[in-house]
Amino acid sequence: MEPDQTSGENSSKRPADHSRELPPQDTAASVPGPQLPEQHLKRTKKQVVMTELKEVLTMVIYLAASLSILETYRSLLLLQLGMDEFVHNYTIAIVEAIALGKIVALAQKLPFLQAFRNRALVWAVLYQSVVMTAVVALGGQLEDHLMPASAKLLAQSGNPVALAVTRQLASLLIFVVLFTVRGADKALGSGTLWKLFFEEPHSKK
Q1: Helix extents (H) in 111-191
Q2: What pLDDT was estimated at residue 156?
Q3: H/E stretch holding 45
Q4: Contact criterion met (CB below 8 Å) for 154 and 77
Q5: What does the pLDDT look like over 13-30, one tens digit per residue?
Q6: Contact 75/147 with Cβ under 8 angstroms?
């Protein structure tokens, strides 16, 4: 009977299990690694928003300059026919640039514009450029319906088919340059092209 007594005494000397009495720990605090403060997270979101605004503003400036060149040619044709539409056409170019810049920024996240994301960059650029050129063509048709007098004079200035084809090819080239730069910058790393073109290379010691 002594062994039983000894085992009983040993069991009584064992510390009680208080694991069930411990309060539940915070799961966020148990995650390994340093926790980012809330102020840092807010700064990060602000930086993301500022980066997106910078990209949209850059696209708007580029599109406004490019579309203004097309509108200059159109305005000169109208001026030869006695119709001064420089201010109106430049205003249209700026409005289109703002709208297209926002559309491009939002459309990059749409599935139908990412159809060739797993293919070579040239196919993705051509596909996206054709889609956006079609959007510009629809906008041009809407402008012709709203301004029938200008459209009629342009049709009388020469071959309307050749004029329309030239405008669409120029629009396609504008978007090819835009999407090529954006695609290359994304592949190389955001901001890499800007550094290559506008920042001096660091001298290696």
Answers
A1: 121-146, 148-156, 160-188
A2: 65
A3: helix 38-80
A4: yes
A5: 455 544 455 555 544 444
A6: no
What single-letter amino acid sits at 81?
A: L
**For residues 98 and 185, what is the distance between their CA atoms, to the nearest angstrom?**
22
- 0.85 cut: is pTM over it? no
Nearest residue to 152 via CA among 66, 67, 85: 85
Distance from C-alpha of 41 to C-alpha of 81, rounded to nearest angstrom: 59
Considering only CA atoms, which of 142, 132, 143 is closest in space to residue 170?
Answer: 132
Decide: helix, strand or coil at residue 103: helix
Q: How far apart are CA 128 and CA 112, in angstroms?
A: 9
d(CA 171, CA 178): 11
Report helix angle 38-80 to 160-188, nearest 10: 160
Instruction: Give the side-chain half-sphere CA count within 13 A for 49.
Output: 6
68 CB burial (10 A radius; 0-12, 13-18, 19+) = middle
Within 13 Å, how many C-alpha atoms sit on residue 19's CB side? 1
